Amino acid sequence: MATAATILLRRAFLSSSPSPSAASRFSSSLARRCDRITPIRFRSMATASADPFQKIQIQRDDTTFDAYVVGKEGAPGIVVLQEWWGVDFEIKNHAVHISKLGQGYRALIPDLYRGKVGLDVAEAQHLMEGLDWQGAVKDIQASVNWLKANGSPKVGVTGYCMGGALSIASAVLVPEVDAVVAFYGVPSPELSDPAQAKAPIQAHFGELDNFVGFSDVTAAKSLEEKLKNSSVPYEVHVYPGCAHAFMNSSPEGLKRRKSMGMNDENPDAINLAWSRFSSWMGRFLSS
């Protein structure tokens, strides 16, 4: 498992050529956690009978990908980006919740893995290892443009872990994005420089997150320093007593987090983060 974690580090979290020290710290952290994991499997929410999502297809360049849309037409749009698991029950839970915040949003989840879902850690590692990050940014851009072409006057992007890193990258690389909220993830320097952001960014991190250089407090502070050099509004929030993926609060999500050694449960932090999310998107996506 440690070998897989090293490959994951090099090709996904920190992209093509991270510094050896950062690679070593993050690889050791991820390897220790993965070595403790007992594989568990969950049924995707996509198979549930009460699925509220409309499945659509979006074209970009010479490829087509599936996306899942929930919320009222004509509302501001928010592209919701998956964790390394793929389009599973948890990211769909987030999208449904987002669609009901404030005056309502039209939430869209692009399927960055093209129909594949990691049902245990090894599968998720394999899928994330093979992700084309530049291609994923193009998927995000196509998703933003689809929402704008289909009635959403303004569109934001949010994401979690892998999706958090991609959401920050979209603020730099996708000019059509109007606002970003990122959860526990920062992009590699090879993918994008947050100092060059063109859309407002709000970011959330857990104080106990130990994915060094990607989503720990050091990464949060580094992101904040870079955003100070940008020309966009920004906020960086760190939540005491919270570990990685602290927003995942469903029974299945809590079970999965505990299997990975994350035993914290903090409903107050989750509610505060959602409140900040709602205020930020409401501020920048309102007409």
Give short descriptive properties of this protein:
287 residues; alpha/beta; Rossmann fold; eight-stranded mixed β-sheet; 9 helices; disordered N terminus; Dienelactone_hydrolase-like; Dienelactone hydrolase domain-containing protein; hydrolase activity; AB_hydrolase_fold
Can you tell me the CATH class? Alpha Beta
Poorly predicted runs: 1-49
The count of strands amounts to 8
Please indicate the percent range of residues in DSSP E strands (runs of 2 or more). Answer: 15-25%
**What is the topology, as strand order, of the major beta sheet?**
1-2-4-3-5-6-7-8
For the biggest sheet, the summary is: 8 strands, mixed
| Global shape | globular
The CATH fourth-level homologous superfamily = Alpha/Beta hydrolase fold, catalytic domain
CATH architecture: 3-Layer(aba) Sandwich
What share of residues is helical?
40-55%
Radius of gyration: 17 Å
- Treating each run of at least 4 consecutive H or I residues as one helix, how many helices? 9
Structural class: alpha/beta
